[in-house]
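#data-curation
PF: Archiving a pair of folding outputs for the training set. Convention for this channel: one message per protein, sequence first, structure tokens after, nothing in between. First:
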Amino acid sequence: MDRAQRFSAVSGKAMLVIGCSAVLTSLVARTATTSRAWLALWISECALAVVISLYSMSRKLGGWQELLNSPSCKRCALVLLPTAVSGLVTTLLALRLGWIALTAPTPDWLPGLWLLFYGAAVFAGGIVSLIEIRWLGVALFSSGLLSSFLDWSAFATTIVGFGILHIIFGVILWQRHQS
């Protein structure tokens, strides 16, 4: 029966917290003078968002075992992870190839690229999850496209994509699903 179920353990409250944390990180990262400092802030933010997400999902499902044993959670992870890992590998390759110099300011194109990968991953996860997650994926991907073609600054891209969109969709999920 669970095979037909959608993964619904996504927490609107947690998404709201993640969005607020991303806004704060955007504000702090704006003052970073090197890519090394900027990347350290955003890698920390990403790790924090993952921890918040996993913790909130485990609480919503009743514990870590329930989260890890949930077939719908496993399906969601299987469709989300390849694209998310591709974004990580692309960032590492950009560093290795010198497209990102750790001692120079962060290139404005990097957050837009991250949003393209992240949006695609979230959209894929939304196929086996709540419809709002799919729309969040579309919004994230679209903000990555806009950032890429309108030459948004790294600050504008991160505050809109990782901050404001998570806050908006967090509130929507919280209202619709009471969690």
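PF: Second:
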Amino acid sequence: MQGSGTLRGGNALICGDSRVRLPRVGSETVDLVVTDPPYGLASDTTIMRGAGKFGPAADIRTSFEWDERPDAGWIGECLRILRPGGTMIAFYEREHLHEIIAEAKRHGGSLRDVGAWHKTNPVPQVRKVKWASALELFVIITKPGIRHTFNWQHGYHHNVIVAPICAGRERTLHPTQKPLAVVLPMIRYWSNPGDLVLDPFGGAGTTAVAAKGLGRRYLAIEIDRRFCELAEERLQQTPEGCFESASKALNTRSA
């Protein structure tokens, strides 16, 4: 695992604080940012269940102490690091999505689209007061200068990605792990083979794994050593370019 901002062999997994590490990355060196920053849910939640159909049920308690929202400085840093024509895709909590858009525009970014991940197996709505929450939103920001990359040849695609929450062998201990099925199309469409993909909130390494499997380079930064070790293990198990055959099949069908 690398502890500096130096890219070795075109790739780096850095265990550190992105607030410290991002300013060390050279300007206009990254082609695509795909990230899932903490949403700022830093509180504890208790769902009172009481008696149910089959008798008393235990309350559900969830802690989000780890999910402290970072300051907005990372957005400006990502725009600085992006090459002209580069793209930033960032998930965020819906009530504050506008804050990312406003900050990106303040640093010269252009809003290209707002998309959603539709979870086919969302967490059940046990309180029975609303519909089950099955959407996570993301913004697509491009940096002006030259035409941005968009690989339309992969086929017509809505701005909604339909995929289940991680399960089975892909599932790690990371509480908000994004599935490869969500991140892979982002990297396929919005970058080219050999491009450098950055994730300043690397988590369990999904962005880096997807980038490596699609023949891109990766730079991932994660503050929690446990998740760094998970990401490193996943990267070691991912052959370079292992997802490229699926991309070529898509191109053939779209031609």
